[in-house]
Amino acid sequence: MLKLITIFLAAVLVVGSQSLNIGKVGGYTDHPELIENSNIKALVKYAAEYLASTDNLILDEIKITGVQTQLVNGINYKLEFTAQSVNGHNKLTTCEAVIYERFDSTRKITSAQCN
Question: Any idea where the Cystatin domain is (predicted)?
């Protein structure tokens, strides 16, 4: 009986994560439909502010080029974007940031870097 309940709960979790359209548990899933999403734009702005404060990298004309999500105990957002580096003689740079957002909406930058 316990095995049957365990299998049922696992099936509910898998179906539930698919119906949320967030992604599969454990792996990243591409979400090009989120590129214009206001929450994603806010996350990219958050990453740009982080890069300005930690790497002294001022970014302008930010364009989001890719969004991936990973369902964990919250959601990891892997964001790819291009921007003009203001303090790098207006050089176009490509950046990637991973931001963990808990279900209570608290955020933490896991990694952020530009080439």
Answer: 36-96
d(CA 18, CA 70): 12
Query: Where would I find the H helices in the chain?
Result: 2-19, 38-55
Q: What is the pTM of this model?
A: 0.76
CATH number of the domain encompassing residue 74: 3.10.450.10
Residue indicated by tokens 């990219």 = 44
Rounded to 5, what percent of the chain is helix, strand, coil?
Answer: 35, 40, 20
| 61 found inside a domain | yes
Q: Could you read off the pLDDT of 8-37 as tens digits, one per residue?
A: 555 545 545 444 455 556 699 999 999 999
